[in-house]
Amino acid sequence: MSEMRLHDTTGRRLYLNAEERDSFLAAARRQTARDRTLCEVLHWTGCRPSEALEITPARVDLFGGTITIRSLKKRKDASGQQKVVFRSVPVPPEFLDTLDIAHAIREAQKSRKRAVTPIWDISRVRTWQIVTRVMEEAGIPDGPNRSPKGLRHGFGINATVNGVPLHMVQKWMGHAQLSTTAVYADAVGKEEQHIATRMWG
Questions:
Q1: Residue 22 maps to which CATH number?
Q2: Dihedral, CA of residue 102, residue 104, residue 108 and residue 110, to nearest 10
Q3: With the C-alpha atoms ordered 62, 69, 89, 41, is the resulting torsion angle positive or negative?
Q4: What is the tally of structural domains in the chain?
Q5: Is 141 within a domain?
Q6: pTM
Q7: By C-alpha distance, which of 151, 156, 164 is closest to 186?
Q8: Cα 64 to Cα 190: distance, rounded to the nearest angstrom
Q9: Are 45 and 87 in contact (CB under 8 A)?
Q10: Gap between the Cα atoms of 28 and 102, Å rounded
Q11: pLDDT (tens digit, 9 = 90+) per residue, 79-99?
């Protein structure tokens, strides 16, 4: 049984809703190139901050429209050995253009060394500080949802609300079990109303 939750023990949301996601993205686009692209990769891929910090130019497919992310949750194969799992997540072409302009991805891919050097050379703590500052600037009220985790959960909710099949959301988010991803099907508030409206139509 999955322990992942979308609400804390007092019932407060642990995810950004659609309006908050839009506000976050708008605020991110007013930041420096480094902070903007970092916030946008978290927004568009739903990856964990530690996973974002591992992304290299070699993992950006400018033509295929995807970013490949290494799943950092420890997993073992049938023999008990730890296995490395990668997942490719589709992102909007406009974001790839922004990423390329800001970090010279195309040029970096031509260099053996730069191609495998992480795009964002900052710590997890600094990443958390950047994301929460941008959320504050976006006017997102203080609460458990105003965090990188809230952004990740918001990605899962958004994908589910917009009809992305759960097995695909599972792949994009790097969940080992579909039961973990299924938590997003328990979306509430406007998200659940949106799903219900589609059903009634």
A1: 1.10.443.10
A2: 160
A3: negative
A4: 1
A5: yes
A6: 0.89
A7: 156
A8: 33
A9: no
A10: 14
A11: 767 778 999 999 999 999 999
